[in-house]
From TrEMBL:
One of its GO terms (cellular component) is extracellular region. Residues 236-297 form the VWFD domain. Pfam families: Ig_VWDE (PF25776). This is VWDE protein. It comes from the Eukaryota. One of its GO terms (molecular function) is signaling receptor binding.
Amino acid sequence: KLPRLAVQPVITAELVRGRVHLKCSYGAHSAGPPAQYRVLWSRLSSPGKREQVHHQSTPQSFSYVEMDGVKLRLGDTVFCTVTAFRRGTPEQQSRPEDSQGFYAGIKFLPESLEIAEDGKEHVLTVLSTVPIACPGQDDSCKITLQLSTEELGKSSQAPGPPDIALSACQLDLLPEPCSGSSCAAATVTVTAVTDFTQDGNRVSRISARPVTPRDVLWRAYTPRDVKVTVRDLPTGNCYSFTDPHIITFDGWRYDSYKIGTFLLCRSESRAFEVHVRQWDCGGHRFATACNCGIAAR
């Protein structure tokens, strides 16, 4: 009877002597004579193609490999494939069992956002799937990420205002015990900028860059961007101009020749209103009022 694995291989991340290692756990099967395990580590080198980076034969129910920044780097998706066999009969092997792909680096949750120009804040979680090492004795035990936004497809000669706003420009990832796929996490809120123009749905991206990390593993790493689709919402306009002609939000037109301070518009759903002051602007034959002041809340 061929040996087999107790559980499907699972990859987690750990700090071993201050350096980031990946651990493949697969559980030894207790029935029968003791088994040996052949563990093959690989990384996704291109879509659908893996590159072998390390292999090991061990009687243990786990295997470690170091993320050295050369064979395994941040940004890699890593797999371990495990085969069991009995001592003395290496030709009688179990079926190879594959782990799920483990992405080593920074993840954004959700991985993409669809938001609208409605002023709502959307929480974006930034987490590290690998533990944060502490190379020094000072406050260097963290990874600082610089956040930036960019609208895709916008001309660099006329960039205009951004389409999304972040609640912070920098985030600190502080080390904490790994739980699931998270070894450090922080949050930032994303809001669509209300621009009062009908410019269609637009796509922006949020980028994160580690700021002068002391750990060599992080120096050449650029996390994946987050795609943010901003859904355009129709906006209304009203006008008061010259002596004053008024056009309302729903297109009504009339004139107001009176002198005084008036309520021009008020929102029924939020704290927003506009007052206008109209004053005599010098008609000899006819009384004429013009806008001379405005107050908005």
